[in-house]
């Protein structure tokens, strides 16, 4: 560029705009509105999704925008139509608590059933129990839940009062220029608010001015999105310079912004000040819930308040999930309902037959007197004809036998899950010391699903790896610099920046290549040296990193802490600093870089941030030599298409070779390019950029188009290699999961070579595996690749089958397969007829590795398995791009990592490391499944025994549904006599120890095969219940039928017998005893005895003193002993024979625990594959 030309457009070499909003996230936000109105969501990861995103960004009329007059809330909202700033997270008020809480509780159909039973019992013709006693069980359950909900809502009300009562400094509308204190809940849209350092932002505000002369403000968004890194926000220079006039009201300033939406990363608006129109984006707004940091004060205008703020719009909870066991329980509940209807029908039909046979005797029957002669007038008394009598008997039978469907089961399951969650949270083996994070249980209703997982879908970066990026090597103009050495312990070779009498150095040290250091410092004027300097200048300038200066114990030494949203950017900036290009200041319009001791200022003329479409970012810099340069960095797949290949073809090929070498050892790679802009190029870009950035809607697409036009004909500068180390214990964890029969699929956005390398490092891929690779760019080629893959896999399966028929060995005959597929292929496969072919080949393979996949494609891959199989799926990830995958899976787990807490907030469970998945699934998942499964079957059994006892009694009372067992014993049976032991055993019982479950991962298959809860076990349980009911009823009946003992005494005997028998049944199945288990089981029996004695001691109740009459006879105790022996012998015999002759894996392992020696157990050692081993062949 000629000097004259440089001077001619020198006036343009100034900052023209703040960093724009992230267009990729804007498009997602804008599409959310369209998605909400759509009847059917588009396919995950399909082209239809991309079309929808583009269509959603069309221009909208100004009538759809919000007009905010700065400093004038009355003009902004004259009709007070906009919400105030008060927030309410509480669900209930004093008046609405009872009706709304009851409505929410009765959404459970079982509660409606028990309410109907209680209502029927209130009718005189159907009254079987006392009216109070029939309502008590349901009332107790409703009351317990209501108290819990009321306490939780009271805490929300208290939090709301504190939040709404906080003070904010608001500009006096009278024009005095003074800020006066006002409560948060009284703030209105349009008011100007001042926030001081370390204060929370009261509402969503557009920045007008800050204490920094350049308009920069730093905010921490940890309360909003969980990210702890500081974010930069900017006030426009147009409002900074006119702040006194704006606050005084001497000039009209208005903001035209989009309507409220949930996208916390996007904001579209225009600012009109003094006749000038300026664009506003996400970098100009600070949101409620953030905190102002490292900034003395900031002044802004409220644009969204109260329920319209983005934090409140995002406060809705995640979709509730139901566990697999609870879903299967509905099947058994229907079967129990069928049994209940059968019993009621049998009683009512038999009663009708009895009435027909004895119709002539009813005139004198004490219970069925057809007429009442006591009052002089003849009238029907307690008899309504055979037809109505049969109908009434049926309804009465439903009331008597109602506990066939156990109401206590629901509240017991909630209590057990709460206890299980407590022990999972307190488990030290799930505590991550590095991040000081404990396991979190965010969904209490799917604990048992952790014991039935068959597929694990995992992100790579930050989930399998640490997401702590470390710069390792660089390729500059085709020359590889990978001989880096760690800094010396004394810091003699660490680069320092001298500022006055202080020394500033980067907080994180990076190893450097001595050859490259010499090139930069001694040979900088050579052509090779200039290229190296441009490369590191690009690394230091092309980012959104904010340098923060932090102190050290030495007052003369300071550390430069680079804060940013991307760990990759942080690693690159630290690398540039290590080689002498130190970023030391960033404002809204310029950056300051110490270039090998020479401090230089570069004007930031424009910034196009990274988006998922372009897969690159760029910055336009005004350099001190008056040139304008465009620096671009991005993925190689997107960068090689915009490079100038006619000049640098050899260099590009050499760079590709180096990139392949970096990827092969698991490094993350980026390509860096540069272009010097001429005056015409710059002016054309400047005009397009201004038009795009001032558009209120459709800005994302327009900015992407502007970036794509300027990012071309680039000169390649080089490439970088960044290491993302594996987390501790990942290879061992994956091997344990594989042994447990769990298939691990990795879904990553990294390039294929990097993903394969990490796959070997984490032992997901092994040298014995045969790889099937699908990289296709069209639907036809995808079809051909899938058909070939199916043919190949079928051939290998056939070979494996023949080998297993002839080789009796260790399973080495099977040929393991790994499918590797990229995101481009998935675009043509997902939600098309090719999905079925992909499913067929993927389920045959042992490992599936998906590379270069978008977030929605991750969810699509999960849906591929979830919709076609009954297998349980689990998704685990750490970033916002994993949220859709986590929500799609049956169980979602978030990793508390370096990419914020979006994944954690969307998950069902969260933890600090991937390796914790092993104890979570193999230990807690196994325990939770076997406990809940047993508890459900036991509750069905326990109540069925009681119902059948009453049924046998009805057969001997002319089917009149009179009961010998008192109504209070019937009510207390499932609420007090037998409820506590099931809860205690459901929380504390352990069939196997942690050591055994970790040493033998195949024991996890118990849950996968549903061995502890299935239809066969349910039928056997019901048969056992019928047998025990026969024993409990007929032994006392036969013993006392020729005696003078009345029905009430027999009823007490039956009550004590059944309570003791079902508790002994439970005790027989307990695996590990402790004092709490002993107290709950034997204590429940003691409580039942005391309650029966107490009830029979009340003279006003039926059966007064009955228990005392029967307990004093020796036959009473002999009957109890006979009941226990006869009732438990079949179960004990079957249990003994099964465990001796047909033991399952659990029983064998228990014998090993009892008689084996686990004292020397220290865990299994998993041998690691090395890159020096012979690599398997690839099938393409």
How does this structure look, described?
The chain has 1180 residues and is of the alpha+beta class. It has 40 helices and 38 strands. Helix 6 (109-122) crosses helix 13. The chain starts with a helix and ends with a strand. The model is unreliable at 1-61, 807-812 and 1158-1180 (pLDDT under 50).
Question: Mind sketching the topology for me?
Answer:
Layout: H1 3-8, H2 23-37, H3 47-55, E1 66-69, H4 73-76, H5 97-105, H6 109-122, H7 131-164, E2 167-171, E3 179-183, E4 192-196, E5 204-210, E6 216-220, H8 222-225, E7 230-234, H9 237-241, H10 243-248, E8 253-257, E9 269-273, E10 276-280, E11 285-286, E12 291-293, E13 297-304, H11 310-313, H12 324-357, E14 371-372, E15 379-380, H13 386-400, H14 408-425, E16 440-441, E17 453-458, E18 465-476, E19 479-481, E20 497-499, E21 502-506, H15 514-522, H16 527-541, E22 546-551, E23 557-563, H17 567-578, E24 581-586, E25 590-595, E26 598-608, E27 616-622, E28 628-634, H18 636-639, H19 645-664, E29 667-676, H20 679-693, H21 699-710, E30 715-726, H22 730-739, E31 743-747, H23 752-761, E32 770-774, H24 779-806, E33 817-822, H25 823-829, H26 835-844, E34 847-851, H27 855-866, E35 872-877, H28 883-888, E36 891-895, H29 902-905, E37 909-911, H30 917-954, H31 967-977, H32 979-988, H33 994-999, H34 1005-1008, H35 1015-1040, H36 1047-1069, H37 1075-1096, H38 1106-1111, H39 1114-1141, H40 1145-1155, E38 1178-1179
């Amino acid at each position: 560029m000629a000097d004259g030309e440089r001077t001619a457009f020198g006036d343009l070499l100034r900052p023209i705009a703040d960093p724009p909003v992230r267009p990729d996230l804007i498009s997602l936000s804008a599409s959310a509105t369209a998605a909400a109105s759509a009847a059917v969501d588009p396919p995950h990861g399909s082209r239809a999704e991309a079309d929808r995103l583009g269509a959603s960004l069309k221009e909208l009329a100004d009538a759809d925008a919000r007009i905010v007059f700065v400093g004038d809330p009355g003009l902004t909202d004259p009709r007070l139509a906009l919400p105030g700033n008060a927030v309410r997270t509480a669900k209930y008020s004093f008046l609405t608590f009872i009706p709304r809480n009851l409505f929410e509780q009765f959404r459970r159909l079982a509660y409606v059933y028990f309410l109907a039973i209680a209502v029927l019992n209130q009718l005189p013709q159907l009254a079987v129990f006392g009216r109070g006693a029939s309502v008590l069980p349901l009332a107790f359950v409703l009351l317990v839940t209501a108290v819990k909900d009321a306490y939780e809502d009271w805490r929300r009300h208290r939090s709301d009062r504190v939040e709404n009562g906080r003070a904010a400094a608001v500009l006096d509308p009278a024009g005095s220029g003074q800020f006066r204190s006002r409560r948060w809940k009284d703030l209105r849209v349009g008011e100007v608010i001042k926030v001081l350092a370390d204060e929370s932002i009261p509402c969503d505000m557009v920045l007008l001015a800050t204490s920094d002369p350049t308009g920069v403000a730093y905010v921490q968004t940890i309360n909003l999105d969980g990210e702890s890194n500081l974010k930069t926000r900017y006030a426009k220079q147009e409002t900074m310079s006119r702040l006194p006039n704006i606050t005084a009201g001497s000039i009209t300033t208005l903001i035209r912004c989009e309507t409220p939406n949930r996208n916390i990363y996007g904001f579209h608006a225009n600012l009109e000040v003094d006749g000038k129109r300026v664009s506003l984006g996400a970098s100009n707004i600070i949101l409620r819930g953030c905190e102002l940091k490292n900034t003395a004060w900031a002044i802004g205008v409220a644009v969204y308040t109260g329920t319209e703020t983005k934090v409140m719009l995002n406060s809705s909870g995640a979709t509730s999930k139901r566990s697999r066991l609870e879903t299967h329980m509905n099947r058994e509940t229907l079967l129990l309902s069928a049994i209940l209807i059968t019993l009621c029908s049998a009683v009512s039909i038999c009663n009708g037959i009895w009435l027909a046979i004895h119709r002539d005797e009813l005139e004198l029957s004490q219970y069925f007197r057809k007429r009442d002669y006591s009052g002089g007038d003849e009238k029907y008394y307690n008899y309504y004809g055979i037809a109505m009598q049969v109908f009434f008997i049926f309804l009465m039978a439903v009331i008597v036998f109602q506990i066939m469907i156990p109401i206590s089961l629901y509240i017991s399951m909630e209590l057990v899950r709460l206890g299980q969650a407590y022990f999972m949270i307190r488990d030290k083996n799930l505590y991550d010391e590095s991040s000081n994070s404990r396991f979190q249980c965010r969904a209490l209703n799917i604990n048992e699903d952790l014991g039935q997982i068959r597929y694990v879908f995992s992100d790579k970066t930050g989930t399998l790896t640490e997401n702590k990026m470390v710069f390792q090597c660089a390729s500059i103009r085709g020359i590889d610099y990978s001989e880096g050495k760690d800094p010396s312990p004394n810091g003699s070779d660490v680069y320092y920046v001298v500022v006055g009498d202080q020394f500033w150095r980067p907080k994180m040290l990076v190893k450097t290549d001595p050859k490259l250091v010499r090139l930069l410092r001694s040979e900088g004027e050579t052509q090779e040296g200039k290229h190296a300097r441009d490369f590191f200048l690009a690394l230091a300038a092309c980012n959104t990193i904010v340098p923060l200066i932090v102190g050290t114990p030495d007052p003369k030494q300071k550390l430069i802490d680079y804060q940013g949203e991307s760990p990759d950017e942080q690693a690159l900036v630290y690398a540039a600093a290590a080689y002498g290009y130190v970023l030391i200041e960033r404002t809204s319009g310029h950056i300051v870089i110490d270039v090998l001791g020479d401090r230089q200022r570069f004007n930031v003329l424009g910034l196009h941030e990274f988006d998922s479409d372009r897969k690159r970012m760029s910055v336009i810099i005004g350099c001190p030599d008056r040139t304008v340069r465009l620096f671009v960095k991005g993925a190689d797949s997107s960068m090689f298409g915009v490079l100038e290949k006619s000049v640098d073809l050899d260099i590009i090929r050499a760079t590709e070779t180096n990139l392949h070498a970096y990827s092969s050892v698991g490094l993350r790679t980026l390509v860096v390019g540069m272009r010097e802009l001429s005056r015409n190029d710059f002016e054309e870009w400047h005009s397009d950029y201004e038009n795009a950035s001032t558009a209120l809607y459709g800005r994302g697409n327009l900015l992407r188009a502007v970036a794509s036009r300027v990012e071309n004909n680039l000169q390649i500068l080089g490439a970088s290699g960044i290491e993302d180390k594996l987390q501790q214990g990942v290879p061992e964890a994956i091997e344990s999961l594989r042994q447990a029969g769990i298939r691990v699929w990795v879904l990553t956005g990294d390039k294929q070579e990097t993903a394969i390398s990490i796959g070997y490092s984490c032992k997901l891929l092994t040298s014995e595996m045969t790889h099937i690779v699908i990289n296709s760019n069209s639907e036809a080629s995808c079809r051909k690749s899938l058909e070939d893959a199916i043919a190949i896999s079928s051939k290998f399966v056939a070979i494996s089958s023949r080998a297993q028929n002839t080789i009796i060995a260790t399973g080495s005959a099977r040929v393991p397969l790994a499918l590797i597929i990229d995101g481009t292929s998935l675009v043509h496969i997902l939600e098309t007829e090719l999905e079925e072919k992909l499913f067929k080949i993927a389920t045959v393979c042992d490992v599936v590795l998906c590379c270069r996949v978008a977030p929605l494609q991750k969810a699509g891959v999960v849906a591929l398995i979830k919709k076609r199989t009954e297998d349980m799926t689990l998704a685990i990830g750490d970033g916002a791009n994993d949220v859709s995958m986590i929500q799609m899976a049956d169980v979602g787990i978030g990793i508390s990592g370096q990419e914020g807490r979006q994944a954690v907030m969307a998950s069902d469970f969260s933890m600090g490391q991937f390796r914790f998945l092993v104890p979570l699934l193999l230990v807690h998942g196994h325990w939770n499944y076997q406990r809940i499964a047993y508890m459900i079957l036991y509750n069905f059994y326990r109540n069925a025994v009681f119902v059948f006892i009453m049924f046998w009694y009805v057969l001997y009372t002319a089917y009149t549904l009179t009961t010998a067992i008192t109504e209070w014993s019937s009510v207390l049976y499932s609420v007090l006599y037998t409820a506590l032991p099931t809860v205690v055993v459901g929380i504390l019982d352990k069939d196997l120890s942690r050591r055994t479950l970790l040493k033998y991962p195949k024991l996890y298959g118990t849950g996968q095969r549903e061995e502890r809860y299935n239809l066969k076990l349910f039928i056997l349980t019901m048969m056992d219940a019928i047998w025990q009911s026969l024993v409990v009823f007929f032994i006392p009946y036969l013993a006392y039928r020729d005696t003078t003992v009345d029905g009430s005494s027999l009823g007490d005997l039956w009550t004590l017998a059944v309570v003791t028998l079902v508790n002994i049944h439970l005790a027989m199945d307990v695996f590990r005893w402790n004092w709490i288990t002993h107290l709950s089981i034997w204590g429940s029996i003691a409580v039942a005895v005391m309650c029966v004695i107490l009830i029979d001691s009340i003279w006003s109740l039926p059966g007064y003193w009955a228990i005392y009459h029967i307990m004093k006879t020796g036959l009473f105790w002999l009957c109890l002993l006979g009941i226990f022996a006869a009732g438990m012998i079949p179960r004990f015999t079957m249990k003994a024979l099964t465990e001796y002759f047909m033991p399952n894996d659990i029983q064998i392992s228990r014998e090993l625990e009892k008689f084996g020696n686990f004292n020397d157990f220290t865990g299994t050692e998993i041998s690691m594959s090395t890159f020096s081993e012979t690599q398997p062949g690839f099938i393409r």
